[in-house]
Structures are given as structure tokens and as C-alpha cells.
Design brief:
heterodimer, A: about 325 residues, 2 domains, about 0% strand, globular, B: about 575 residues, alpha/beta, Fumarate Reductase Iron-sulfur Protein, Chain B, domain 2, 6-stranded mixed sheet, 4-stranded antiparallel sheet, 15 helices
Chain lengths: ~325, ~575
């Protein structure tokens, strides 16, 4: 007799279903991104997916785990897509390969695989590459560069020289560099007036990508794939410090809306800090985690040397997550004060 | 209008209740054989009162409660006892349990049923009467009801909660009982009320049972009693005693407290019904309403004699060919019956025929991704995924820190888990491991105190012996005449007197030993050791710590657990 255990009913849920929802939620942003930059984005997504699946399969084999079950759970593909979307779209193929492998092999499997990683794998990939290859990781193409598919493929696969034409900076970086110029005497308003780089509220074009991330995130929230608290806390953390500094020195600090739609804010809020494995799990812990990550991301991106601060902020909070969880355990039924 | 409260968590599985609600309760036919386990309730195991070959009457007591928390069992029909032996139990383990097997004679000859006016009985007699009638909680927990019918000494009873929620999917036995026999239920409740004297009586029924609500309201009105019949939102596990108490009174009873200490007590509707039958008709609990549903042609509720073998019972519903298992209880907390020979018992509220289509085999277990769905679903607001990690790691100390024993095993966490982790099984495993260790520890403590006691006794006896020897020697010395004294100073040449078998040397040695022993005892008496004059609790604490030290290298983790020792299983 086989021993069966209750409950005999289960909800129609699975890790795979959750991961597929996350991938689907990324589609609007990818679509806008492709429209802005071109097919290079898809090429990067393809490389990352392939590398992630190969790396995952190799590690599963080494760890003696069932291949089909874990390759099918979709978690490696989610990591791959997040890496691809966090990396510059015209970066050489090996850069995204290194990043993705680092995420899958080291950040995920060497820590024990699915569910065991203390750090967000995609953010580890970003952090490793921006430290190791700072210039390549800072080359973001302007949205209207207008290079065709052939040109983009040549760049990615190293068949064309990497020229200044495609080595722009992110709008965040552009603002910071302009303001930091020793004798610039520029104000935020005058910098943001540069219509070649900046759009309505954020980076030209990039603000639409951010908006698409927001749409995808809200959809996941509506489908109850993410809880929403940690995303809201992250955005609140960033908005709070941005508003405070902007009110204090509007000439030196961009308005909060600019920060919310620039860089990795929206991607971070809905697809990175929402990672349950490396984040906090208690209700209060989620709020603390999100808020602190938002605050820290702003500080790093505005006062630090890196183009954006989301990755480092999230990784720092990942370190704190167990401690936050431990100290915010909710009172149980019958034990509330 | 009663103000309702909410409990957190819970799930809403499909109810599957409609099929078994189509027909009224029917009386199940007499089976060919009845297998009546003696142990059908929480607590003590009733002792058999009958022998093989003995003729029994319907309702005759065949097992007597052996202690306060225990309940009698009775012959479900008249016939001959053909065996008193271990038989397969209605339990997932497949173990056997002492059972009385009766071959019915078909005459259904009752004992002399004596209705009692419960008002004339002293409360203590009334409780005994219920115990001897075998009245236990029929919601599935089968806790002897009489043992719950005393208010706490210091806390006035405020609310009596009557559970008609029936939140488990598939199950409809309480629903139909309330529809068809509401008046007897309400009369039973008045008995409980008179014993507990609560300020309010609240009857909670899930709002997916409008007919039962209607029928109960009418019965309450007809009998002119001041009970509140309330519809509670349908959400599993609203029928859990603690959840229903929460919903109706706002009180949260933690695992560490008993509900009367908080001025509330809870009974199932079917329990109230059987209590009334026992008093007003003199009928002990020999049958119950059992829902037969699931993968059967004719789902229905049957009034079934306890002891009916599962195999005979299921024929009443005509199981479909692809039926591969039978569950007892609901699909959330029930279990798979170990075989068709297992009998229906007081806890058998529902039998569900299962098929691969109805209950697909569980999907492969994946690692936990800490999504927290289980924590949101947990009606006791626990963090099941944390408990899972600690149970898996056998870090049982931590599981208790995270309130493992507040888990009611309702299955909500497993139900929502996207990784298909059988969480409840991990928690049951952890609980049983902790109980086992607790038992081991108690045994070790007992052995240690036995050992210490023996050491003490040995030492005391040694001291007493030395003392005796010394006295004997001293007595001898004084007996000797003073004239012989100088001679005694030259011991080498002196031969001891014939009447003194102990030579002077030995006597001297004994005297010295005795003196030293006395001095040692005096010293010890003078110096108060920090381990003296301890309270029993402190001594126990020391014994516990010692036991722990002994175990320490093997079970580092368990050390931290002693803060809240789990309730030792008493069975």
C-alpha cells in the first residue's frame, strides 16, 4: 500500500506557473525596448536564455538532480531575461554570457539551486560585470541611433569596432556627469532640457520602457503573483528621499518622478525586490526590505560612482534579509498583544 | 445582529457538497458483521466487558471508560460476540486495535432504554451518564464530551459555541442532520448550556447551508430558547473549533490555553444530538450519520451503525470502477482507509471514494521558493515555510520557537504551495520526533534519579555499618577490666579474649574509619552546598540540564527547546 497524505485537494499552482507569469509580465517592456533600440534586445535575450539553460542543465547534471523537472520550472529563463534586460543591449556576446553564467552557476547553484540563493542572481550578474567591465557595462545606445539589425549583430558578435556612436550613457549617468562637471554651474533643469537625451519626465524613450515594466508589474499584482507591498515600499523609499532632496535643492537634485522612471527603478520594483527567495518574507520585513532598498538605490545612483544603484542596494538588503525576517516575526493566532 | 470577526488565512476549495445533498438521510442496512473498536475516542482505552460467545443486546455497554477522559462503547445491535481481538483500525497506519466483533442476530433487540430527566441529575452524575453513553465529539476529534462540560473555576463561561460550520469539502452529514433533526440538536444544546451556564449560546453555520440555517432557526424559535443562529462566511477551515470561536466571539485560543480558560467552549451539532438521544431516549452512541460521496453512483448520507466494515458500507453508494481509494474524513484533513475490513467509528463523518481523476497523484515536490503563500493561508498565522526548513533540518528547537505546536494540521499551507511540498507531513514528523525525544528524556530523567537514589542509599548504608562496627569496638573496650589495660598496650603479644572475635587492630581501624566518616558527614552538614535546599523545580531543571549535556554533541539543536516543553502525549 502506498502511503498517501492529506490534503488530497491542491490548488492549481506551481513554480512553473509563477515563472511563466513573470516572463509574460516582462513582455510589454521587451516590446517597447525592441521598438526603441531594435532587435539587439532580442539577441541578448536569446543568448542569455540559451546560456542559462545550458548552465542550469550542466549544474543539475553535476548535482544529480532531475533535468526535465528543474529545467521546466522556468526559473533559469527568468534569471536570464532579467540579466539581459539589465545589461546594455549592444554589449558583446561574451559579456552577457559571463553575467548569465555567474548568475546561474555561482549565485544560484553553488548556493544550492532553486530556492536557496541568498542573493538575487540577476543582480549578482550585474554587480560582477559592472565591477569587472565598467566601461562596457556603461555603454548604452541612444534610443534613436538607428542602426539596423546587421550593424547591431556585428557589434554584439565583435565584427565591428565599438565606436563612440553607440557608447552613450544612461540618462541617469548623463545627468550625474553633467552636474558633476567641475565648472559646469549647470542646474538640473538646464541639463534635462537636452531633448536628445531626456524625454517628458525621464530618459528619452526609457521612460516608456519603465512604464511598460510598471504595467507588467501591476498585472502580476492583479494576478496575485506578487504581493505588491515590497514594490510599493521600494518606490516609496526612492520617492521619499528624492522628494526630500529635490524640495531642498531643486537645482542639484532631479524631481522624484525622474528617478521613478529612470534606470532600473521600475524593473527593480516589480521584478527584482519581489524575488521571494532572496527577499524578506514577513509582512513588516517586506516593507523594511523594499523601503531600505529604494532609499539605498537612490543614494548609490546619485552620490555613488555607478550609473545606477538598484543592483547594489538589492544585494546589500539581501544580506540583511534573514536578520530583518528574524526580528519581524509576526505574532501568531492567539498570541497578539 | 451578531458582530462577526475574521480569522486570517484559510482557503476556498471547491465544496463538492451538492451530490450528497440530493437525498435525505437513510438508515443503512444491518451489516453481516460489526467490528467495534474499544478505543474510539481521545483518552483512555475502554476495557472489554464481554467475552467471546456472549450474547449482547443493542446498546449494551461492551467497553467501559477506564478513566475520566475516556468514553464507553456499546453493541450497535443485538447478536453474539464472536471475537475480542485486534482488528484493522480506521487509521492510516494500517495498525490493529482491540475490537469486539459481533455477529448480529437480526432482531435488533434493545437493552432496557431508560430516558432520564437530566434536570434531576447532579452535574457530576450527568457527566458520568454522558461518558457511559459514549458521547464524544462527532466533528471528527472524538474528544469525550463530558470532560469538556465543566467551566473553568476562575473564569465565568461567556459563550457556548455550537459548530455547524462543516467546512470540509464533500462532507454533508452535519448539514443534513441540522435540516432533519434540528430540534433534537437544539435540545442537546440546552443540556450543554445548563451544565456550562454560558451567557450566550452561538450556533455557527457556514453560509453555504441556507436550509440548515433555516431549520435551526426554526427549531430555536419553536423551543423558545435564546440561542443565536448565525451564518458564517464559507471559508475553510471556518469549522475548526478555534476558527469558529474566533469568528463568533473574537477570541483567539492559542495552543497553550484551553478554551474554558477564556470563557468559551465549543461542541459539534452532531454531538449535541447524540447527547440528547442518550438522555431523552436512553440510547447510547451506536450509530452516526456518515456521508458517502465522491466517485460513487449514488452519493448520500447514511445513518450507519458504528462498526460497519467499510467494504459493506461503500456498497450502498455503488463505487465507480475506477475507484482506487477511500478517504475517511474530508479531503483536507482526512486520510486513506487502510483496507475495506476497517470499520466505521465515531470519528467517521465522511467516506469519499477517490479516483485518479478526483484526487490526482501529487505533483513532484520542488524546493521551497519562500513565496509565502503558505503563511498567507495559515489560519494560525504561522510561517509554515520557516517551520518546513527547520523540520527538514531536524532543527526541532527552532520549530518550537516558531510555534510548531500551534499548527492544527488543517492543510491550507499544502493546498496553496506552488512547490507541492507536503508541509503538514513535515510538521507531523517534527511533532512526533519532539514527543519521542520528550519521552526519552523523561525516561532518562527517571533513570538518573533512580541511580542517584541508589548511590545515596549505598553511601548511607556504608556509613551506618562503619558506625555499628565502631560502636561494637568501643563497647568491647569498655567491657575489659581496667587491670588488663596495661597489657593491652602491648598488643603484639596479647591474645584477644575468646569471647571477642574482633581483634583490637580491626576495632581500632573501624573506630578510625567511623570517626573519619562522622567528621566527613559533619563537614558536609556544616558546608551548605549550592545544590542543597533546592526546590523540586530547580532539581528538575538540573536533571534536565544534565541530561541535555549528556546529549549535547549529538543534538546541539535540541538544546534550545526546553523553554516550552511540548505536551507529553498521554496515551
Amino acid at each position: 500500500m502506498t502511503f498517501t497524505t492529506p490534503p488530497y485537494l491542491t490548488q492549481d499552482v506551481s513554480v512553473r506557473r509563477i515563472m511563466l507569469h513573470v516572463l509574460a509580465a516582462l513582455v510589454p517592456a521587451i516590446a517597447v525596448y525592441v521598438a526603441l533600440i531594435g532587435p539587439a534586445v532580442l539577441v541578448q535575450l536569446g543568448i542569455a536564455t540559451l546560456v542559462a539553460l545550458l548552465g542550469e542543465a550542466a549544474m543539475l547534471k553535476l548535482r544529480d538532480k532531475p533535468l526535465a523537472l528543474f529545467l521546466g520550472d522556468g526559473s533559469a529563463v527568468v534569471t536570464a531575461w532579467l540579466v539581459a534586460l539589465a545589461f546594455p543591449p549592444l554589449a558583446p556576446w561574451w559579456l552577457i554570457t559571463v553575467g548569465t553564467l555567474f548568475a546561474i552557476v555561482i549565485a544560484k547553484h553553488l548556493y544550492g539551486g532553486l530556492g536557496q540563493n541568498p542573493f538575487n542572481p540577476a543582480m549578482i550578474a550585474f554587480a560582477v560585470c559592472i565591477v569587472a567591465y565598467p566601461s562596457l557595462m556603461s555603454q548604452w545606445p541612444p534610443v534613436d541611433a538607428g542602426n539596423g539589425i546587421g550593424e547591431q549583430l556585428a557589434l554584439i558578435f565583435g565584427q565591428a569596432p565599438r565606436l563612440d556612436a553607440m557608447s552613450g550613457a544612461t540618462p541617469l549617468d548623463a545627468l550625474k556627469t553633467a552636474l558633476k562637471g567641475a565648472d559646469s554651474g549647470l542646474t538640473v533643469a538646464s541639463v534635462l532640457d537636452n531633448r536628445a537625451v531626456f524625454g517628458h519626465v525621464g530618459g528619452k524613450g526609457w521612460e516608456w520602457v519603465s512604464l511598460a515594466y510598471l504595467v507588467g508589474g501591476l498585472w502580476m499584482w492583479q494576478r496575485k503573483i506578487i504581493g505588491g507591498q515590497v514594490s510599493a515600499a521600494f518606490l516609496a523609499g526612492m520617492a521619499l528621499i528624492a522628494t526630500a532632496l529635490w524640495l531642498l535643492h531643486p537645482d542639484q537634485f532631479a524631481n522624484p518622478l525622474f528617478h521613478l522612471v529612470s534606470g532600473g527603478t521600475m524593473l527593480g520594483a516589480f521584478f527584482i525586490v519581489t524575488d521571494p527567495v532572496s527577499g524578506c518574507t514577513t509582512p513588516r520585513g517586506k516593507l523594511i526590505f523594499g523601503f531600505a532598498a529604494g532609499l539605498l538605490a537612490y543614494i548609490i545612483r546619485v552620490f555613488g560612482g555607478y550609473p545606477d544603484g538598484v543592483a547594489f542596494a538589492v544585494l546589500l538588503l539581501n544580506i540583511c534579509a534573514p536578520l530583518i525576517d528574524h526580528s519581524t516575526q509576526p505574532a501568531i493566532f492567539g498570541m497578539k498583544k | 445582529m451578531l458582530q462577526l470577526f475574521k480569522f486570517k488565512g484559510g482557503v476556498k476549495p471547491e465544496t463538492h457538497k451538492a451530490p450528497s445533498l440530493q437525498a435525505p438521510i437513510a438508515k443503512a442496512p444491518l451489516p453481516e458483521q460489526l467490528i467495534v473498536p474499544l478505543h474510539q475516542s481521545i483518552g483512555g482505552v475502554p476495557q472489554p466487558l464481554v467475552e467471546v460467545g456472549q450474547h449482547v443486546l443493542k446498546g449494551q455497554r461492551i467497553g467501559a471508560a477506564d478513566q475520566w477522559v475516556s468514553a464507553a462503547v456499546h453493541a450497535p445491535t443485538s447478536g453474539t460476540v464472536i471475537a475480542v481481538e485486534p482488528r484493522l483500525a480506521a487509521h492510516p497506519s494500517g495498525l490493529t486495535t482491540a475490537s469486539v466483533v459481533i455477529a448480529p442476530d437480526g432482531r435488533e433487540e434493545w437493552i432496557d432504554r431508560q430516558p432520564v430527566d437530566y434536570h434531576t441529575l447532579a452535574p457530576e452524575r450527568l457527566r458520568e451518564h454522558l461518558r457511559d453513553a459514549g458521547v464524544v465529539g462527532l466533528g471528527g476529534a472524538v474528544f469525550p464530551s463530558h470532560a469538556k462540560l465543566s467551566a473553568a473555576k476562575s473564569v465565568p463561561m461567556e459563550e457556548l459555541v455550537i459548530n455547524g460550520a462543516e467546512c470540509e469539502p464533500f462532507m454533508t452529514c452535519d448539514d443534513l442532520l441540522m435540516r432533519e433533526r434540528a430540534e433534537e440538536i437544539v435540545r442537546g444544546i440546552t443540556v450543554f448550556r445548563d451544565l456550562l451556564e454560558p451567557r450566550k449560546v452561538l450556533i455557527g453555520i457556514e453560509d453555504n447551508k441556507p436550509e440548515a440555517l433555516q431549520s435551526m432557526r426554526e427549531a430555536v424559535a419553536r423551543l423558545g430558547v435564546d440561542f443565536t443562529v448565525t451564518a458564517v462566511p464559507t471559508r475553510y477551515p471556518a469549522g475548526g473549533a478555534k476558527q469558529l470561536i474566533r469568528v463568533l466571539t473574537g477570541k483567539e485560543v492559542p495552543a497553550s490555553r484551553r478554551s474554558p480558560e477564556m470563557g468559551v467552549q465549543c461542541f459539534n451539532v452532531a454531538t449535541a444530538y447524540t447527547a440528547w438521544r442518550a438522555l431523552a431516549f436512553g440510547e447510547p452512541v451506536i450509530s452516526r450519520i456518515v456521508t458517502l460521496t465522491g466517485n460513487v453512483e449514488t452519493p448520500r448520507n447514511w445513518e450507519t451503525l458504528l462498526g460497519t466494515p467499510l467494504g459493506e458500507f461503500i456498497r450502498l453508494g455503488a463505487p465507480k470502477p475506477d475507484t482506487d481509494r477511500y478517504l475517511m474524513g474530508g479531503p483536507m484533513m482526512g486520510f486513506e482507509m487502510p483496507g475495506l475490513e476497517a470499520p466505521l467509528v465515531k470519528a467517521s463523518n465522511c467516506i469519499i471514494a477517490g479516483s485518479p481523476a478526483l484526487f490526482p497523484p501529487p505533483a513532484p515536490e520542488m524546493p521551497c521558493i519562500r513565496c509565502g503563500a503558505c503563511a498567507e493561508a495559515c489560519p494560525h498565522e504561522l510561517q509554515p515555510f520557516e517551520l518546513y526548513w527547520f523540520s527538514r533540518a531536524r532543527n526541532f528547537g527552532k520549530t518550537q520557537e516558531y510555534n510548531l505546536f500551534d499548527c492544527i494540521e488543517c492543510g491550507c499551507c499544502s493546498y496553496v504551495c506552488p512547490s507541492h511540498i507536503p508541509l503538514v507531513q513535515y510538521f507531523r514528523f517534527a511533532k512526533s520526533e519532539i514527543w519521542a525525544r520528550e519521552r526519552d528524556k523523561n525516561q532518562a530523567d527517571a533513570a538518573k534519579s533512580r541511580f542517584e537514589f541508589r548511590n545515596e542509599r549505598d553511601e548511607r548504608e556504608k556509613a551506618e555499618k562503619a558506625e555499628r562496627l565502631a560502636r561494637a569496638a568501643a563497647a568491647k573496650a569498655t567491657e575489659k577490666p581496667a587491670a588488663e589495660k596495661p597489657a593491652a598496650t602491648v598488643p603484639a603479644e596479647e591474645t584477644p579474649p575468646a569471647n571477642a572475635p574482633v581483634d583490637a587492630d580491626a576495632a581500632k581501624k573501624a573506630a578510625i574509619a567511623a570517626a573519619m566518616e562522622r567528621a566527613r558527614l559533619q563537614r558536609e552538614a556544616a558546608q551548605v552546598k549550592n545544590t542543597d535546599n533546592l526546590s523540586t523545580e530547580q532539581r528538575e531543571e538540573i536533571a534536565r540540564i544534565d541530561a541535555r549535556r549528556a546529549r549535547a554533541p549529538a543534538h546541539q539543536a535540541v538544546e534550545q527547546t526546553d523553554v516550552a516543553p511540548p505536551p507529553a502525549q498521554e496515551q
